[in-house]
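Tutorial handout. Part one gives the primary structure; part two gives the three-dimensional structure as tokens.
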Amino acid sequence: MERLLDYFVPEKYTLDLTIEKAKKAISGKVLVTGVAKAENIKFHAVGLSVDFVKINGKTVGFSVEDGLLSVFEAPRGDLEVEIGYHGSLNENMQGAYLSTYEYQGRTEVIVATQFESHYAREAFPCIDEPAAKAEFGLTIRTPDTEDILLANTPITTDEKIDGFRVVTFKSTPRMSTYLLAFVMGKFHGRTIRNKHGVEITTYAALNQDLSTVDFANEVAARSLEFFDDNFGVPYPLPKLDQVALPDFEAGAMENWGLVTYRESMLLAGRNATLATKKSVALTIAHELSHQWFGDLVTMEWWDDLWLNESFASVVEYFAVDAIYPEFKIFEGFFVSDSLSALKRDMYSDVQSVHQDVSSPAEIATLFDPSIVYSKGARLMLMLIRMMGWEKFCEGIAKYFEKFKYQNTVGDDLWASLQEFADFDVKEMMHAFIERPGYPVITDGEQKRFVVDGEMAESSWPIPEIVEDMSGHYILNLSDEEFNERLARFDTLSLEEKLRLLIDRMLLAKTELVSSASLIPLVAKFKDETSAAVWDILVSIIAGLKIFFEPGSEEEKRFKKFVGELVRPGILKVGIKTREGDDENMLRLRSILLALDYYAETEENIKALAEMYDSDVERLDAEIREHILAAKIYDDPEISEEFLKKYVMEADPEIKFELLFSLTLSKDEKNVAKMIELLEKPEIVKPQDQFHLFIYLFRNAVAKEKAFAWLTSHWDFVKNMAGDKSLDNYPRYMAGSIRTEKQAEEYVDFFGSMRDDLALQRAILIGEKEIQAQLALIEKDKDSVIKAL
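Part two.
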């Protein structure tokens, strides 16, 4: 891929932008100082109209083609480039875009930015590459004089000139283009200062209760303190702003000093569940760790994206565990991130954590949550445990001090850590980072574990085989070894319990263990009280569902089996929240109620439905989602009321629960209404459209209609989804395909898109997953039904 940094090295951008929301317009001048290394220099400029280019004050020739601005006859050496341009504010949540919300009968409009990975070029001409670090000076002119204006750094001047508000911000530190950010609109917020003197302000739209920002402020303040204390380099900016945006494609974005979030990932008010608080805390800690790992020190190129994300995806847990030990947050890591990594990494053609990138279209595909985030985090945890947290932090402090305001590659990190380790860090990490897959270990012998082909002999450096959740491998115990551990299950550590069950579940997807053996295994856990263990039991049960055709007698028997399995636990914990419930009890009750709903236990569904109150905010938050699901099961006609509440509701957690409960309905009329909502972004925002689709696709009654809608509206979906989320469709649909007919439809539809680099890998792995799943059904269906 052509690197524009080879032609021109920017040192400082001075941006003078005019932003007019009513006209959906952005325009201005970009003054760039830097060093020309060639006579023809280039800038990224996608969807922008360039009005003029000057070099050292002199107008010069230029051309714009395929998103590149070519400037002719530039003298080599130091120079100043001035570019005048104009463009549009879009609504697809990348570049500089518009976001809206309703408040007191009017529509409020926000302008926000999302420049990662390569979308700064859609807002202003620039060298939009992570290694092209520069300082950024920013002035914004706007006729919307009452808006709050935010950027990476504090405001230095704020005045009104000729009917425009003109705001200038302090120059940023040296950083990459994808970290520049600005937000303008109507918000309210609260400000606190942490122990180290950093001013922290969290903002929300006016339709959100102001108290919903308090928890986010607390988490941010304490997270910055934790990272200051452990990373050796203090947070380098005077302020940190956090903004909850009504429209946001990802979960959050680590813009230096101005972190942006989905509302559901930042706000937690009086109606927030413990699960939401944990999610918010992890998201904030993740983004704030990026202020060092990603912002202060940045990967050289996108093939090392894992340097940012793998690190942040594990240290977020260390931070939250230190701040809120009562959250037992690492249990979530083991049953979500670790399991997600293992389940994705078991296909023969899966990407490695470090992945070459040859085109812009491929950059978006790198953000595979199960590999770059979860597997990378799992590998970092393995490394941290081998080194010890304190030694690891000493190495990280050295790394930050040496490379601050610079770019690095993976080997720079390993070199910094090596001084504090008693093993070869580079050798071990290269083996896991550069290669896809992981080993299954049988009597000390390694083979690469795959579910869609032959398990060939392969070797990874594993200094010590342990049975906790540290290592990225699975253990193929003999039946005798497995039963011996099962017999003393209560004496095992929690991590040993989780590994025992996770490994067995994954082995049952191959010839090594029969799926039928999982039925009596699960049955042994009727009296289990650990929510984390139940999380894995849920995954095992979900895996067994593929053997039972929806609506069949066999499925009814399986649902009865699940109902009997959870009955003792529900009798013990009850269906209502009790005073004094700890984290485990709250989570356990929610897991058991979800399984009981699947089992269609009429007595409990009826009891939950009777708890419904039309004032949804008055419902017990910890079981609210179960009450809503039970109500629509018991009374399908309530869907109209739910939908009206969904449209009016501002609380992101309640809004999601209402939508999710609607997708569970088996009523044909309700399914038809939900399918119609897929193409109504004025009701279901584009950021939530995929979730609506995939939940409908997983509903047996809605599956066929949802897929038919997708095939006939693909252009609409492509326009709405954006680069980074389009591959979610082939990726997450594959796991819900159970029949040859569904598989053929999947291949027929997505097969023609295999050459699209943005979709290629997701389709390939999706097809592998489907093939493996159908082969497993063919192999084990009869024995599973017999075991049941």
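Part three, for discussion. The first strand starts at residue 8 and ends at 20. The chain has 26 helices and 25 strands.
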